Amino acid sequence: MKLATSFLAIAIALASVPAVALAQNEAGVFPSAPRVDRLPNGLTVVSVPMESPGIVAYYTLVRVGSRDEVEPGHSGFAHLFEHMMFRGTERYPQERYEAVLQGFGADNNAYTTQDFTLYTLTAPSSVLEQVVEIEADRFQNLQYDEAAFRTETGAVRGEYDMNASSPFLQMWEALSEISFSRHTYGHTTLGYLRDIDAMPEMYEYSKRFFRRFYTPDNTTIIAVGDVDHDRLMTLVRQHYGRWRGRRDQPRIPVEPEPTAGASRHIDWPAEAAPRLFLGYRIPAFMSGRRERDQLASLRDTAALQVVHGLAFSEPSPLYQRLVVDERAALELGSWANDHSRDPHLFVAHATLAEGQSFDAILGAIQGELDRIAAGQVEPERVEAVKSHIRYGMLSELETPSAVADLVARTIAVGGRLDVLDQYLAAVAAVTPEDVARVAREYLTADRRFVVTLAQGGAQ
Amino acid sequence: MVMRHGKAALLLVAFALGCGGPAPEPREYTRLPETTGDEQGEAVAREPLRDSPRVVLQRDSSPLVTIRVAFDAGSASDEAGREGLTNLTAHLMAEGGAGELTYAELARRLYPMAGSIDVHVGRDQTVFVGQVHRDHLEDFYDLFRDVLLRPRMGEEDFARIRDQARNALVVDLRGADDEELGKEALHALMYRGHPYAHPVLGTEASLRRVRADDARAHRNRVFCAGRATVGLSGDFPEELAGRIERDLSALRSDACVGRAVLAEAEQVEAPRVLIVNKPSAQSVAVSMGFPIEVRRDHPDYPALVLAGAWLGQHRQFVGRLMQEIRGERGLNYGDYAYVEHFTQEGWSRFPLVNDARRQQYFSIWLRPLRPETAHFAIRLAARELARLHRDGLTQEELDRIRTFADRYFALYQQTSSRRLGYAMDDAFYGAEGEYLERLRSAWRELSVEDVNAAIRRHLSPERLQIAIVASDAEALANALASDAESPITYRSSVPEAVLAEDREIVRYPLGIARDRIEIVPVARMFAE
Fold first, then answer.
1. Are B214 and B48 contacting, i.e. CB atoms less than 8 angstroms apart?
2. Interface probe, candidates A166, A332, A387, A413, chain B, greatest B C-beta count within 10 A
3. Are B119 and B90 in contact (CB under 8 A)?
4. How many beta-carbon pairs under 8 angstroms link A with B?
5. For chain A, what are the domain ranges?
6. CA distance A240 to A135
């Protein structure tokens, strides 16, 4: 850990409250060592210089997602608000905002998840100063009228329609519902259709939402590529320094530990191969207040990550049996790298071949997880998965956008960037015993939630 | 945009790994004709084969090494009656084991290095893409080479891959992805009687017909050195380029033939419509367009790129359609225009590389609309195209979009693998100079008159062909043909200027005769 001395010097020169130098990573998986700073108002700033042809990814992470939608009838609101953030300010009304960004040739977009909203702007580094200015203005001074709000809810409805022709949306809605009786992970980020249809009437609520969650202490600026940290900090301090506000802390209901699983079937009205979607309740990416507890929880997360590879990757015995040898499933997979702030799900899915029963495939999946829980895994396979995770991550970090995205996701679920090093160290330390332990503890039938879908009745 | 990991994993029928059956004896096969729209067996004109693979190098410091081997063969090379064969052949090579290894063994070897061997099949190109960290390049290359030179192509693997293709066609495309179905329906409409008409996946009937023997014969005919372009990018050892060129030169076969000369696509003189009747559809998917003669090597290409970006740059707000349909009216999620075939690469907003075509088309994509606004939005889009064709861009509009494009298009080439892909595409088209530099240099010279003249030459709205996926096809067909007003209501107050424009849009004549609207039940799409 080393202090960002150059930043501190500038901070003092500007007579502002000296910023706290946060944990500084060595390069690790990144192209260079990230630098992390925090403004007195709580705004976190991360930079990662990397070779890029005059390009900078300027991402803004807001730690608000559908997890924060605690009020009934407001599912999908974090996502709607992501849309509203493109509606302009007094200084840069929407048309001008877009014209300026277009003049930069910027790739400007955003996405929302359960835990966070990420604004993804990639532009020539030559316009970084203007980018900082216009983004700072948008996050502090967003302004839209009721007509613009109502119009934008139409685009959100359009996004729902876009997804609705696929069985995925309904399956994910159902799995979320049956897995969580209290926690807000029980609804999807897109939200229920009934809530989306009610959005046009919620203009006042939307303005409160902005004040509650779009605050400096809930936001991280991430700049990756052709960027100089000190210059970035000067600009950020100049344009975000006066931003005020404290994040609202809604009480996210705590989900009790499951004592029995549940299942639901969906009749699909169009041609559909039978699909199976299952989730096992697992802990948060990282939990606990003390470092010792946090490291212990990261060990569990790392071991579960290895289970994904052992059980569901293409070379795995289960995949080879179901998809290749028996051709009982057309596809089999799982959501590796899907981490969450709160206890969530280890998700796996399969599409069944004609004539196959859900019970048989479910039984085969549980059988493989039980085998792993019983310690019947060769140590070299554990090593192969660990190597895959490491090289997979290295291969993904080719562009400033990809690096910025990893930084954002890490901070979003872990709260700080150096947790990535701790997590990767935990992956490197995973043993066959760890793998068996987490499978015994978490991947059991009484923690399992199952959704099936088929054309017509259940098989 | 809402993102959730796994959506793609769930929906994509990954032509995933599997183990192979016994390796077949290497055999030579008699030549089979390619489909040309002519009767099977009829002699067709063919392009000459090259003497050896083309080689394109993009050496730089990236630790991620990419090997791209693109063959001038795609679904347009499918034999008549065996549609989908090129796709099956390519996936059987990549996912059926190679050399001494079954596919399970191959997968196990690739896994610890996180190496990947993917294949993409388009209408005119098939590309095998190998990617690995330089730490593992030596071991990886041996596996990649065997996939191309010594694929096992066994019966069991073939049966699995064919099942997956059928599922991707029948269940995923027809049953679960109306947006893609709309795009494929547009191909079926624009390219009637042309080798681009059928999906890369094939048809239900053809997938029942094809056998592993067909795939083995097809490989000998089309995946050979005389059709190959080899590309390397990243921090690879210099000697690798020569090695891969030598290795791939061994891909020779007496059965290897040049591409069949492609017939011109039909140009219509008046709009026509295909509606896929899908009773379960909740919303209406719309794709519209027409074939154009402009490709990347055409002098009007740079001007049309600007026109396309102005009308609807993919996934950006810069486009007129996006501003009008979503921004002003909130009718849907996205509205874009393209001056060449476009497939989005993964979650990015950028086009897939090595998906080049000998013939191109212009298109507009309206992402799903509520049934009650579909007619209105189709009118709005057709009217915008007509206005662009009639009035062209103003100097100010040209300057704005040129400034945008000059910078934005640089983002297309952020990785060495993508820069390599663009260079290989240039080789496909025979275009001189580097893609982005070529565009920028042409853009600097273009006057507003030049751009508008190119628009008038190539984007005539009378040629518009419209493909729709909707639940009540008959009612929509009647409404379109009647040219009756399509009133629109909003849940928000809309500026008077927009309402004034709406009054014109609701009665904008599309001029579509009822006998030029065909309705096809969804179950019949790509059945034969």
1. no
2. A166
3. yes
4. 271
5. 5-240, 262-455
6. 9
Q: Which of B4, B161, B403 to mutate to test the interface with A (most CBs of A within 10 A)?
A: B4
CB pair distance less than 8 Å for A272 and B176: yes
Distance, in Å, from the CA atom of B157 to the CA atom of B103, rounded to the nearest integer, reads: 9
Q: What is the pLDDT, as a whole number, of residue B16?
A: 27
Contact A79 B2 (CB under 8 A): yes
- For chain A, state the CA radius of gyration: 23
Q: How does DSSP classify residue A325?
A: I
pLDDT in tens, B310-344: 999 999 988 999 999 999 999 999 999 999 999 99
Please tell me which residue of chain B has the smallest CA distance to A165.
Answer: B176
B226 pLDDT band (50/70/90 cuts)?
very high
Residue A199, CA distances (Å) to A112, A174, A394, B451 in order: 17, 22, 41, 43
- Cite the residue boundaries of each domain of chain B with CATH code 3.30.830.10: 47-249, 272-524
Angstrom distance (rounded) from CA A145 to CA A127: 30
Where residue B253 falls among pLDDT bands split at 50, 70, 90?
A: confident
Q: Is the per-residue pLDDT at B525 higher than 90?
A: yes
**Whether residue B23 has pLDDT greater than 50:** no
E-state strands within A315-441:
329-334, 344-352
ipTM of the predicted structure? 0.89
- For residue B132, the cross-strand partners are B65
> Mean pLDDT, chain A, as a whole number?
91
CB contact under 8 A, A111 and B400: no
Query: Which pLDDT score is estimated for A5?
Result: 31
Q: pLDDT at residue A380 above 60?
A: yes
Topology of domain A5-240, per CATH?
Cytochrome Bc1 Complex; Chain A, domain 1 (3.30.830)
Within 10 angstroms of residue B497's Cβ, the number of other Cβ atoms is 9
Which residues contact residue B117 at a Cβ distance below 8 angstroms, ignoring those fewer than 6 apart? Answer: B94, B110, B128, B129, B130, B143, B144, B147
The residue type found at A248 is: D
pLDDT digits (tens, 9 = 90+) for B24-33: 333 333 444 4
- Whether A310 has its CB under 8 Å from any CB of chain B: the answer is no
* Mutant choice from B17, B329, B414, B498 vs A, greatest count of A C-beta within 10 A: B414
Q: How far apart are CA A239 and CA A221, in angstroms?
A: 12
Q: What distance in Å separates the CA atoms of residue A36 and residue A128, rounded to the nearest whole number?
A: 18
- Top CATH class of B272-524 equals alpha beta
Q: CA–CA separation, B395 vs B385, rounded Å?
A: 18
Smallest Cβ distance to A53: which of B62, B410, B492?
B410
- What is the pLDDT at residue A26? 59
CA dihedral B510, B514, B515, B517 (to 10 degrees): 70
Q: Do A154 and B281 touch (CB under 8 A)?
A: no
Provide, as residue numbers in chain B, all residues whose Cβ is less than 8 Å from the Cβ of A82: 1
Reduce the DSSP state of residue A326 to 3 states and report it. coil
Q: Mean pLDDT throughout B395-420?
A: 95
Residues in chain B within 8 Å Cβ distance of A87: none
Q: A126 — contact with chain B (CB < 8 Å)?
A: no
- B132 DSSP 8-state letter: E
Give the pLDDT band (50/70/90) at residue B81.
Answer: very high
Q: Could you tell me the fold of the domain covering B47-249? A: Cytochrome Bc1 Complex; Chain A, domain 1 (3.30.830)
Which residues in chain B have Cβ-Cβ distances shorter than 8 Å to A154? 326, 329-332, 490-492
The length of chain B is 528
If one looks up domain A262-455 in CATH, what number appears?
3.30.830.10
Q: pLDDT tens, A389-416?
A: 999 998 889 999 999 999 999 999 999 9
pTM of the full structure: 0.91
Q: What is the pLDDT of residues B446-461, one digit of tens each?
A: 999 999 999 999 999 9
**B378: Cα separation from own chain's centroid:** 23
Take residue A381 and report the two structure tokens written for it. Answer: 């396979």
